[in-house]
Every structure is written in structure tokens, then in C-alpha cells.
Amino acid sequence: MAIVVNMPRLSDTMEEGTVAAWLKKVGDKIEEGDILAEIETDKATMEFESFNEGTLLHIGVQEGETTKVDELLAIIGDEGEDISEILNGGGSEAPAAEEAKEETAEAASTETEEAPAEEAAPAAAELPEGVIVVTMPRLSDTMEEGTVATWLKKVGDSVEEGDILAEIETDKATMEFESFQSGTLLEIGLKEGESAKVDSLLAIIGPAGTDVSGVADNFSAGSAPAKEEAPKAAAPKKEASKSAPAAKTASAPKKAAAPAPTPVTENGRVYVSPLAKKLAEDKGINLTKVQGSGENGRIVKRDIENYEPAASAASAGKFVPAGQEDYDEVDNSQMRKAIAKALTNSKFSAPHYYLNVEFDMENAMAFRAQFNSIPDTKISYNDMVVKACALALKQHPQVNSQWFADKMRLNNHVHVGVAVAVPDGLVVPVVKFANEQTLPQIGAAVKELAGKARNKKLTPDDMQGSTFTVSNLGMFGIDTFTSIINQPNSAILSVGNIVEKPVVKDGKIVVGHTMKLSLACDHRTIDGATGAQFLQTLKGFIENPVTMLV
């Protein structure tokens, strides 16, 4: 039976691939493990091996041609097999089904061989009628695992197509995950606060009353956590005895003085409702000090409202030594892990250098004051910087570029990413076609995106496609700083505070206002002179902002 081979996803950010070379031709015999082709991805040129045996019947992408991930790459089958129906679209909808049939046939052909039962993935036919296995979705292009922040349905609830099943914390944001099936929620594979890799068991939906215990036990997606390693359901923990070894409480926040209350944690994560978490943040309450009274010891709203810090040992008349060590441990969020990975990769793969400048802001301050005097109009200095960068980038496409192994992409469009600090880390929503937008439009877009970022409502589309990034810490009183390039951008501009200081004008020392900026450049795409020319153009727009309106 013919098998459709699609363009594989060979890197976490790969969206399309180019066939650099075919190592097999039509008519060649293919063995499992043979190298079919060399595929050029967004990161490297990699060998792609076959997972099937048969004859190479068709090549869908010629050498040098490019196609998107999951598009037809080749067809493998029996020698002389008719594949016209697949090529004409009749079989295009069923690669997965054909793969399942192949697995079933392979299992049937090896019935006499002894193999551990858990090594064989259950075929679709083994599922009870009407039962659907819901796996951890890939909600962002770089997502490798997700954490269930909140379940909005519980076992036994009726689920309609389009209902929100859960809130999933990805490496970029917490996003609502809706059901694509209707039925009854029969089983939940991950509790709130637990994490699993993409495609691991998340839930099972099907007809009410269906026994799915065997389905969960036999689910063996490659990324699914082993059953014995899965975190157990959270339950109130008893206070550790004095003789208990320290390792048993190592995952809980450490306090050297007295034992902390018994927060309901699993692997260091506190189980708390979203509302209770918000209230605790507003009141500055450390959740590890709160005893939960909700289901399975979960911290709920009333626990925060009724929380009173325990009386200190000193107020109780006990001796407390000074200088005790004291620390808390907090699990790294998916966002924090992604930030660490992306910035480490950028810093050590792109040769950074920095260009520092100082601009006269007198005209910019006067321009903003006049502009904001218009009724219902409010622009910030950051809006002016974003607009000025967008206009300057159109004149210097090399700064608006991206680096690839064999080519450089000079973007004709300008999408400016604006770094926004959020409680869990940093996100970079994107102002699309910033050079074509007015200052008020840019101000409204930045305000909306920043609000969505702080409320964890950003979508993947809101954060994709930037060609340049602006990071502004001036509102925090920072005069000057440098940033790490937000790849695949070639540059990032760091914007400092406007400072009142003595300056020399016409040979006299007068009071002036200046702002320092630092441009971090990738030396693979931007030479020093190119970066300097971009800053000269930027200086013209910033110091004479009326030119941005021409």
C-alpha cells in the first residue's frame, strides 16, 4: 500500500523546507533507515531518512524547490502500484489513516514474534466507538511542552465542539484551548499545574459511561510521560517528621527557621485557583505560606482573604539567631525556559556589536506636547521612536534583514517588535507595517498589545513576524543599556531615559535634554558603517520629528 511522505518538521521553528539533494530516484528500492534526501531547514541542512520500506514511486518536490511542512514530499509503495488516485487528490486526506493501516498490517505480519506489549502503539481501531484521545496541542511555533493552568471542564461534563476545555500555559503565554469534538469528558490526563510534552495525553472525550481505562493505560505517544513517572494528584501533605530525610521536602520552598505551612505542591508547584493567585499577587502574599482549603487542598479565594501571617518567634518570646539563611525555590515557567533558550542561542550564535548614540530631545519634547494638545490624542516618546525606526528601516533594508546559512533576506516590509515586561518574563508583540501607520495608530496598537501581554491574551500571530525590535527602559529611569538581539532579527534598539543635563549650544553651556540609545547589531548582516548610517537617519527623524509627518 502506498505511503505518503510529507515534508518533515526538522526544527522547532521550521515552517518550510527546501530539497537540497535527492539521494534516491524514482524506481529505487527503499529500506527503513535509508537516507532519502537532504533537506534545508531554517537552521541547517539535514539528512532525512525513510521510516518505510518499498519502492520510491513519486518525488513531489524537485531539488532546489521549497514547500511547507506537511506538504507532499514523496510516495513510497509497491513496485508498479497505481498512485494516480493519490496524485489526483483522492488519497490526499488519508496519510494518517494509511499510516495506521500500515501499522496494523505490520502488527499482523509479526503476530508470531515476541515483543513487549507496551512497545506497540494502539491502532485507531482499538479505541472504543466514538472515543477521541485529545493530546497536548502545539499552541506556538516554539512550544515543546505545556502546563495545564486551569481546567474549565471536569470529568463527567458534557463538551460541545468549540467549548473551552482548559487554559494551557505555553512558552509564550497562557492560552485557551477549545475542543474540536463533542461528547462527555471521560478522563483528564494532566491535573492543574502538571506539565507534559506536545502530543502527550491531555484528555479523553467520548460517549457517556464508556470505560476508557484501557485507552489511558495503553496510550504511548512518543512524548507521553511514562505512567509511573506522572505526578500524582495533589493532596494535602502531612508535616514532615523530624527524622524524615531532607530530600523528601526538597521540592517545597525552603525556610531555614521554622517549618513552613504545608502548601499543596507537586514538584514545587503550588496548586491555586486563578482568582486566588491574582488576589495573592495584589496583596503580596507568598502562596507557599498559605494552607489551601479547596478540593485536594487547593488554595482558593477564601484562603487568601482569611490569610494572616503567623506570629514571629521573636514576638512569642523565643530566641531567634540573627543572619539565618532564607530562600524560596520557584519552578521555571515555560515562558522563562523559552526566554533562556532563545536568548542564549542568540548571544552565542550571532556576533553582537553595539553602537551608542545620544540624541538632542528638545524638538521631540516640543513636538509631543503640541501633538498631544489635539483633543483625544495621546502619543508617547516610545511611539515616536517606533515610527522613526520604521521609517529609517525603509531606507536601510540591511538593518531590516535576516540571516540564513546561504543567503540574507532583506525585508521590504517593516514589522517592529516592542519588548513588553510581564510578571513571568518578557514578550515581544509586533506592530505590523509600522512605517505605514500614523503616530496615533502606533500608539493605539502598542497600548492594545501591551494590555493583552499583561493579561496573557496575546495570540501567536501577535508575536510573530518582527523584522526589528525596540526595547525601552527609559520609563524605569535607566539612562543606557544594551540588549540581546531578538532573532531572527538582525538588530535591536535599546532606548534610555530622557535626561536634563548641561549641553553646549552655539559655544555656550545651557540646560538641555538628551536621550541615549544603543543599537545591537548582528555582524553577519550589518557592518559597522551600515549600522552607523541607520542611526544617522534615525537621528534626523528623532531630532526633527515633524519630518515623520511628511
Describe this structure in words.
There is one protein chain. α8 crosses α9 and α8 crosses α10. This protein is an alpha+beta fold. It has four domains: 3-111, OB fold (Dihydrolipoamide Acetyltransferase, E2P), CATH 2.40.50.100; 124-222, RNA polymerase II/Efflux pump adaptor protein, barrel-sandwich hybrid domain (OB fold (Dihydrolipoamide Acetyltransferase, E2P)), CATH 2.40.50; 252-305, Dihydrolipoamide Transferase; 334-549, Chloramphenicol Acetyltransferase. The chain has helices spanning 84-87, 95-109, 213-218, 274-283, 301-305, 334-349, 362-371, 381-395, 439-454, 528-543, and strands at residues 3-6, 16-22, 29-30, 35-40, 45-49, 54-59, 66-68, 72-77, 132-135, 145-151, 158-159, 164-169, 174-178, 183-188, 195-197, 201-206, 265-266, 269-270, 352-360, 401-403, 408-410, 416-418, 420-422, 425-427, 430-431, 468-472, 491-505, 508-522. The longest helix is centred in the middle third of the chain and has 16 residues, at 334-349. The protein has ten helices and 28 strands. The strands form eight sheets. A six-stranded mixed β-sheet has the order 19-28-27-26-22-25. Strands 1-8-6-3 form a four-stranded antiparallel β-sheet. Strands 5-4-2-7 form a four-stranded antiparallel β-sheet, with no helix packed on it.
